[in-house]
Amino acid sequence: MENAKKKLMRQISDAAGNVLYTYDAHWVVVNRLRTRQAVLKITQICLTALSTGGFLASVIAGFPELSWVGGFTSAIALGLNLYSFNFNLPTDIKSHTDAANDLWDVREAYKSLLCDFEELSNEEIRIKRDQISQKVSQINKKYPGTDNEAFTKAQENIKNYMFDEGESARALNIEVDNDE
Known about the structure:
By secondary structure, the protein is an all-alpha fold. The protein has six helices and no strands. It has helices spanning 3-61, 65-85, 89-116, 122-142, 148-157, 167-171.
């Protein structure tokens, strides 16, 4: 492979790798936000039940002390609701999911380009590379970014995307000629 083509291959492989990391980092954020949303909702339900139960028990059973329990848990629930008011978790979850889905398309475009690499001229490769790069840029501008925690977790997860020689073909029950 000539020098210019090797440089293009290295650049495109690096870009594809970056897309894969970013793709996985978005899913890490989605999973983190879904967990936060579930914990928040369950906590709000529990606090509301405790405050309602404390109030009703104080009225029905005639124990005014229980109204303190209801008032205390109600105050905590109010604080939690005010805290969560600053977040729009469903929208954030959707944005990161959409970003990951769009990046999946880019990932597949890079894989196709790398597969066709030897049959394309350097100029054709550059054109396709620039088109894919432009799409990545549009995605990055459209959606929220990820954070260091998500990227670190994505680095740990990346091994899930690697196949041993012939593993994916065996999983798909495809015969591959390995003599090339």
